[in-house]
Amino acid sequence: MNTRRTTLLGALLATVMTFGTAQAASFRWANDGDVGAMDPDTRQETVQLSFLSNIYEPMARRDKDLKVEPALAVKWEQTSPTVWRFHLRPDVKWQDGSPFTADDVVFSFQRIMAKSSNMRAPMSMVKETRKVDDLTVDFETLHPDPIFLQEQTNFLIMSKAWCEAHHATEPVVIGGTDDNYAVHNAMGTGPYKLVSREPDRQTVVEKNPGWWDKIPGNADRVQFDVIGSAATRVAALLSGEEDMIYSVPPQDMKRIGVAPDLKLIEHPELRTIYLGLDVWRDELITSDVKGKNPLKDLRVRQAFSLAIDEPVIAQKVMLGLAHPSFLMYGPGINGYDAKIDVRPKADVAKAKQLLTEAGYANGFQLGMDCPNDRYVSDEQICTAIVSMLARIGVKVDLTAQTKAKFFAKIQGPKFDTDFFLIGWTPATYDAHNPLYSLLATYGGGRGEVNYGRYSNPAFDDMVGQIGLETDQEKRDALIDQASEIVQHDVPVIPLHQQVIVWAAKKNIEVEQPADNYFPYRFIQVK
Question: Choosing a second label site near 435 at 20 to 30 A (CA), which of 325, 354, 459, 525?
Answer without folding.
Answer: 354
